[in-house]
Amino acid sequence: MPHTLVAFHAHPDDEALLTAGTLAKAAAAGHRVVLVVATDGALGLTSGDFRDGLGARRLHELQRSAAAMGVARVIHLGYADSGMVGAIPPDLPGSRRFVRATAAPGLLADILRAEHADVLMTYDAAGGYGHRDHVKVHQVGAEAARLAGTPRVVEATVPRELLSRTVRFVSRFYRFPSNFDLGVYERAFTPRAQITHRIDVRHQIAQKRAAMAAHASQAAADDGADRTLSLFLKIPRPIYDVVFGREWFRDPAHTGPISDDIFSGLA
């Protein structure tokens, strides 16, 4: 039976890194997939070639990513990027910074109701690696699902132990910037014991790679250094398939063994 999945993300490109395979897999199976982003990501890091009009460019890149995954509908809630560090910038004319968005749960709940959503996809309570807009996605998503009566909420994440081990392994071959804090990855995302869903997306790996490649502005930097996205896309295909062939989620209401299907058990 087809279901409707609403995936809620903070910025364009967030959908590609953690969830693109699962979204593509759901779409290929005949489920309706709706992609919602809170902001246009206008404060994201990039090179000077992309800085002018970055928000509009990133929303265009999002459409290309969505097409690669088979997403049926893309929605931008219209909030402004809050930035990752430092003081929260002032609101823009006609657009509040997302972290100040008191009306966001109601807006998202309206979408959930209109789409008859069976599953809402958000982030874990830490917002993955702690970005304040990602933490806000978790908070807004939880409240919106409550308001709309959405049957299931799954939090996109990564097993913390796996991530920490992978970063330590990579550090043996790649020199990270001097300000790189390995400890962040030992505190980020979700302990393995709390993971409830592990999705095999190896058959969707081409779509996932295409979704990542769509976000060209987020692979660019002025100093010539590799951004995270560009590093991932340089991984040779057989190794890339192993590294990105699974995606993980946490459903706080889930009981029993780890599931391989985010729709399993729904009416």
UniProtKB/TrEMBL annotation:
GO terms for molecular function: hydrolase activity, acting on carbon-nitrogen (but not peptide) bonds, in linear amides. The keyword Zinc applies. Keywords: Zinc. It comes from the Bacteria. The keyword Disulfide bond does not apply. InterPro entries: GlcNAc_PI_deacetylase-related (IPR003737), LmbE-like_dom_sf (IPR024078). GO terms for biological process: glycoside metabolic process. This is PIG-L family deacetylase. The lineage of its organism: Bacteria, Bacillati, Actinomycetota, Actinomycetes, Micrococcales.
